[in-house]
Specification:
mainly alpha; Globin-like; 7 helices; about 60% helix; globular
Length: about 130
């Protein structure tokens, strides 16, 4: 996955504390998504399966075990998001939810910014409307 290793040879996954931190991030993120008037309606009522997929994807994306690929194959995230009308405003709302969720993880501000910066590329890459 892109951006897995940093200059010091550690993955972001390792820097942020691995699976427990990714789990906390996902658990903090999805209530914000569901409550957001711009992006919440794009998500199903039962968000638990998506939360698990997001946990697997973020683990892999940040340099941890390739959980997502092992279960679902290549992520192909842009293609998987094509059925949904994703605008720049929706990408920014998604990133804002992630920024607020990161604040709840206990990570340093530096690590929060690193994670958010890495997610900006994919968020804007999914824009299709």
């Amino acid at each position: 996955m892109p951006f897995a290793f940093e200059e010091d040879g550690q993955t972001i996954y390792e820097k942020i504390g691995g699976a427990p931190t990714i789990r906390r991030l996902v658990e903090a993120f999805y209530p914000k998504v569901k409550a957001d008037p711009l992006i919440g309606p794009l998500f199903p009522d039962d968000i638990r399966p998506l939360m698990e997929k997001q946990f697997m994807f973020l683990s892999q994306f940040f340099g941890g075990p390739p959980l997502y690929s092992m279960k679902y194959g290549h992520p192909m995230m842009r293609a998987r998001h094509l059925p949904f009308p994703i605008t720049v405003e929706r990408a920014e709302a998604w990133l804002d939810c992630m920024r607020r969720a990161l604040q709840e993880t206990g990570l340093s501000l530096e690590l929060q910014e690193l994670v958010l910066e890495r997610l900006k590329g994919p968020a804007y890459h999914f824009v299709n409307s």
